[in-house]
Write a structure and sequence with these properties.
Length: 79
């Protein structure tokens, strides 16, 4: 009985880890891409620099979502 409760809590925790961990990167990347497009519209000659910086920022932001996925997988398969 106790083992079933621990497994259920791990599954719920894994779901929360992935769900909440995906919200931050999604909002951050949306904001970054929107501002980069705004900058490209205002100064088209800076499009290459803005695109490069935007992709680098999105990659760094996405790492938090990957960390939450790793935590969720650890919760599911370690306990």
């Amino acid at each position: 009985m106790e083992e079933a409760i621990v497994r259920a809590a791990c599954a719920i925790g894994a779901g929360f880890a992935v769900g909440i961990g995906a919200i931050g990167p999604a909002v951050g990347e949306g904001h970054a891409v929107g501002k980069a497009l705004e900058g490209m519209a205002r100064q088209p000659e800076m499009a290459n620099v803005l695109r490069t910086n935007m992709i680098l920022g999105c990659a760094i932001t996405e790492s938090t979502g990957i960390y939450s996925l790793v935590i969720a997988l650890l919760l599911l398969f370690v306990f």
